[in-house]
Amino acid sequence: MSVLIVVATPQEAEFFGNLGARVVVCGIGAVNAALSTYEAVLEDRPKLILNVGIGGAYPNSGLEMGETACSSAFIYAGLGAQDGEDFLDLEQLGFPLFLDTFNQIPAWDGVGEWSRQLSIRCGEFLTLETVTGNLETLKVLEKRFSDALIEGMEGAGVAHAALKLGIPALEVRGVSNFVGLRDRSSWHIRDALLSCRSVLERGLPLLNTLNTL
What we know:
The chain is α/β, with parallel strands linked by helices. The protein has helices at about 10-15, 30-45, 90-95, 110-120, 135-145, 155-165, 190-205; strands at about 5, 20-25, 50-55, 70-75, 80-85, 85-90, 105, 120-125, 150, 170-180. The strands form 2 sheets. It has a 5-stranded mixed β-barrel. The protein has a two-stranded antiparallel sheet with strand order 5-6. Helix 5 links the parallel strand 8 (about 120-125) and strand 9.
């Protein structure tokens, strides 16, 4: 089965070669991710699109450093309007992202069984233009998105393009750090990437056994 893997950086791409899937480097951010995904699909249409890489886990998620998780939904966490102390998402503003979809884009509908067979966590992933780096922002996001597992910068962009193209999408990330105060010295990037690759080594062949694609 043909799979497209979209990653943000060349460093991430190095870890996901030789898996039998096409790998595209999109650059940082949701706009780059959406444009690169769209262009890649026009060249060669896959059955499934994966956004893969590292991410920051929310402290309340229960995830451990170096653990890999996958998305049940992609959420544009910052797309909306500030109204005093309140945040108004696209649905509250009355502006659909696409058809009847607002801030939240559902992941591939086979992800529940896929994650169960791989014994990895599955939950909401947030996409932000600015990586969280202080406790005040962390508290706001944890209150607004209490079920969020991981934050990244590209996932919803990949999902947005996939939605318009009618192709299922999924985000898979290894935990390189915990969301909160920014401390690069505490990040475990290589461990997160190795963990993510290990999941894909097991998970890509498994896709052929599921009947949801």
